TrEMBL record:
<protein>
    <submittedName>
        <fullName>CRISPR-associated helicase Cas3, subtype I-F/YPEST</fullName>
    </submittedName>
</protein>
<dbReference type="InterPro" id="IPR006483">
    <property type="entry name" value="CRISPR-assoc_Cas3_HD"/>
</dbReference>
<keyword id="KW-0378">Hydrolase</keyword>
<dbReference type="GO" id="GO:0016787">
    <property type="term" value="F:hydrolase activity"/>
</dbReference>
<dbReference type="GO" id="GO:0046872">
    <property type="term" value="F:metal ion binding"/>
</dbReference>
<keyword id="KW-0051">Antiviral defense</keyword>
<dbReference type="InterPro" id="IPR038257">
    <property type="entry name" value="CRISPR-assoc_Cas3_HD_sf"/>
</dbReference>
<dbReference type="GO" id="GO:0051607">
    <property type="term" value="P:defense response to virus"/>
</dbReference>
<keyword id="KW-0479">Metal-binding</keyword>
<dbReference type="Pfam" id="PF18019">
    <property type="entry name" value="Cas3_HD"/>
</dbReference>
<feature type="domain" description="HD Cas3-type">
    <location>
        <begin position="41"/>
        <end position="118"/>
    </location>
</feature>
Length: 118
């Protein structure tokens, strides 16, 4: 990684480099690396045993996050009705978590609540 100081349009100065300094030229530029090897390893990475379950849980987490943002307080903030520069009375992440807790009920272990989705 190279860090530049921008002095204006099209005028930058290389300040420092993190990593292999030999991979950069004097101006801090580096060519894109090319290789003939198969670095994607699709055969290794696509055989996830729980791929479908992870996909379902990811979609569910996104839905809960959006539901947390559907609260009246959050919507008023987005629409500019809450003009004061103060913190939220409750965070949308907290609302999402409470919805999740209501759905999974009294499950005491991960296996129990995961059983609702898998």
């Amino acid at each position: 990684m190279a860090c530049y100081w921008t002095h204006g349009k099209n005028n930058t100065e290389l300040l420092w480099v993190v990593g292999n300094r030999n991979a950069f030229n004097l101006q801090g530029r580096v060519p894109t690396n090319r290789t003939q090897r198969n670095i994607l390893r699709k055969t290794d990475e696509d055989s996830w045993q729980f791929h479908h379950s992870l996909q379902i849980l990811s979609v569910f987490a996104a839905l809960l996050h959006d539901l947390g943002k559907s609260s009246v307080g959050f919507q008023q903030k987005l629409q500019g009705h809450d003009s004061g520069l103060r913190g939220d009375p409750y965070r949308h992440e907290w609302v999402s978590m409470r919805i999740f807790q209501a759905i999974v009920g009294k499950a005491k272990t991960d296996a129990e609540w995961l059983g609702f989705f898998c």
